[in-house]
Amino acid sequence: MGVPDEISEQQAFLVLNALPELGPVTLRRLRDAFGDDPRRILAAPAGELKRVKGVGEAVAATIIRWRDHVSLPKEESQLAKTGARFVTWRDSAYPELLKEIYDPPIGLYWKGDDTISAPCIAMVGTRRPTLYGQNVARKLATDLARRGFCVVSGLARGIDTAAHEGALSAGGRTVAVLGCGLDIIYPAENLDLYRRIAGQGAVLSEFRFGRRADRQSFPMRNRIVAGMCQGLIVVESDNNGGSMITARFAGDQGRTVFAVPGRIDQASSRGCHQLLRDGAVLVQGADDVVEEFGYLDGLRPAGAEEATGREDGPELSAPEIAVMDVLGDGSILHPDQLAGKTGLAGSELNSVLMMLELKRLVAKRLDGAFEAR
């Protein structure tokens, strides 16, 4: 059948991603076998395709007769109509951490901001949370967004919704990873939330337009949620909840797993308590997340030395300079003392202190006071 000259590499990736029967593992093997060239895959004869593990007669026939399964003009028209674009793994917008997992999607349907450069932290949990769980998720997401994190979740009911709403309320970035096509809003009641996320962050999916959520698509979505983040926070989950699958993905991918403790008589706490027994980091507030990444020295937001290219240290805002001037003489001060000396309001001061912690310029002592490093 061949591939016409007018089919670009970008279009070939889009076709492969939309073909039925080609899962992420098979696509990874095909990429490895054909030198990451999607045009070569679409132009390959059946015999060459079938030499790839997992590619049998049916899959080879699907690839060879790709025009019978995918209408490229229709796919591109739907992208334009939705206001989305298809970001391949070679695109600069593609999350760098996601490339590290075993079976990364070859591309993502992407609506919204394509410059998500902030460090990403995932937050997941039950679809039927307690009021405690909702409040904790919303507050954690709010506090983390204020400190420069991009909060990633799956747009599901319950904890996912609270996480997105918390980040949005702080004016922060949030990303929703869908288990269906971008043209399907699931659950339907989250339509307004979907629109707000697309306007203040991004909505992503590896699934072609028209694909509905099912038992297979949710675990596939979960591996992306975990894979694009440096850490995952679980807020309320039963032992068999979908969030536990996401936590396993995160552990397998080498991400830091955090868990929020709950009531011992609540079924929705069992999963989190199991994760804590297995070695997850206990989270009681945003400080625990910041401190863990500070200890690992594995998370630096935009503004750190590597991001700015400066050799004389991180670039500081005016409020950050004011705090550093006060602490620069070796003083050890509590937040109320810092507020009095800098004139910063409490909420702004808390945000400034967290950013300075992330930049490893100040340290919080056990008694709650701060000192310069």
Which value, in Å, is the CA radius of gyration? 23 Å
Number of domains: 3
Q: In DSSP terms, counting alpha (H) and pi (I) runs of 4 or more, how many helices? A: 17
Mass-distribution shape = elongated
- Tell me the fraction of residues in β-strands, as a range: 5-15%
Assign a percent range to the helix content.
40-55%
Provide the CATH topology of the largest domain. Answer: Rossmann fold
Strands in their spatial order, largest beta sheet = 1-2-6-5-4-3-7-8-9
Uncertain runs are 300-312
CATH architecture grouping of the largest domain: 3-Layer(aba) Sandwich
The ordered H/E elements are: HHHHHHEEEHEHEHEHEHEHEHHHHHEE
Number of strands: 11
Mean pLDDT: 88
Query: What composes the largest sheet?
Result: 9 strands, mixed
> Class of the largest domain, according to the CATH hierarchy?
Alpha Beta
Cα-to-Cα separation, first versus last residue: 64 Å
Q: Structural class, from secondary structure content?
A: alpha/beta
